[in-house]
Design brief:
197 residues; 6-stranded mixed sheet; Rossmann fold; 28% strand; elongated; 10 strands
Amino acid sequence: MRLLHCFIFFILTGCSLTEEAKPVVSTDAPTARMAAYTVNQYVADLSSQLSRIQGSYKGNARIAVTSFYMADGLGTRLASNQGNGLSQQIQESLMTQFTQLGFHTIEYRLENTLNLQPTADSILSRDVSKLRQRQNIDFVITGTLTRQQHAYIVNARLVNTKDQRIVSAASTEIPINVMWGNEKVQQRDGQLYRSEY
């Protein structure tokens, strides 16, 4: 028994004399990941839900799509920082997808004349004085964005302009990093952008 105690003592002493392996610290920063899908793919979920219209609906009804504002800043605040451009991209994707689904989607931002410039041509405008005076719109798709920690919650509605009745509604989540990565500081087109302070 005494021999066994001595043997265990020598083993434990020997273990304490060996050098411990030093942990390897990586100096590589983790690569920021983009969202799994594009904005257009996330909006396809909204289009599918909105296309299930309840109640009477004429097949030739004219549908307009508006910009999606932040729910706490209606008409004044669009998505910003990492979501910069998200509000407009949702609008553009919905217009495209509803047209592809066979709905009569109208472009109410169309000017009366083609605007030719030295480097570009345009017929779209947000200047009310350049647009048609009378817009014939039967339904409008509108909605809001609410920022959560990991995603924007997008709520959309198809509204009858004659009686303000919501004829279909949709909701989906779009990850915060769908437009840009989740780094606090980013470089895009040679410029530094800070998304958080």
